[in-house]
Write a structure and sequence with these properties.
metal-binding, metal ion binding, binds inosine-5'-diphosphate, alpha+beta, 4 strands, nucleotide-binding, binds magnesium ion, globular
Length: 162
């Protein structure tokens, strides 16, 4: 039979979250990081990078037929992006909830985009939309050795597991 800790570990998932150049330039890093941190998710990787246009095109490859693709990739590669991996139970789906709808004019108040952004082309943050994308995006942005596995002292209080 699985021990509590093993069940807990098996349920852990990781998602790729990035603060786009507009969020970085607007000084919103600490505000955004703190929302994930205070929720109880665990930061396992973080770095500030200026992606090349080619890299941005890889990241957004599934949108290449969309009319805004070129402008979007120009924008993502226009300045520093804060790339992160966050870990926690249900973090992929709930991370998207914290972020809010793609178009900030439709995002609920209380969400990151709802509270901090106005237009879809400058919606300050990216989050993986499912387990497969999360896996692909983490592998695109980070080398395995950049992902830090550790036990947070808070976990037993967040999950109630000894
Ligand atoms: P998501 O970021 O909420 O997952 P996607 O549909 O994957 O939304 O689109 C990726 C990004 O492309 C959005 O975050 C936004 O910056 C941009 N985008 C999406 N739709 C439009 C649009 O209609 N006009 C301009 N930019 C858009
Ligand atoms: Mg998306």
């Amino acid at each position: 039979m699985l021990q509590d800790q093993e069940v807990h570990a098996a349920e852990m998932e990781r998602t790729f979250i990035a603060i786009k150049p507009d969020g970085v330039q607007r000084g919103l890093i600490s505000e955004i990081v703190s929302r994930f941190e205070r929720k109880g998710y665990k930061l396992v990787a973080i770095k500030l990078v200026v992606p090349s246009k080619q890299f941005a095109e890889k990241h957004y490859h599934d949108l290449k037929e969309r009319p805004f693709f070129n402008g979007l990739c120009d924008f993502l590669s226009s300045g520093p992006v804060l790339a992160m991996v966050w870990e926690g139970e249900g973090v992929i789906k709930y991370g998207r909830k914290l972020i809010g709808a793609t178009d900030p004019s439709k995002s609920e108040p209380g969400t990151i985009r709802g509270d901090l952004a106005v237009v879809v082309g400058r919606n300050i943050i990216h989050g993986s939309d499912g387990p497969e994308t999360a896996k692909d995006e983490i592998a695109l942005w980070f080398q395995p050795k950049e992902l830090v596995s550790y036990t947070s002292n808070e976990e037993k209080w967040i999950y109630g597991v000894n």
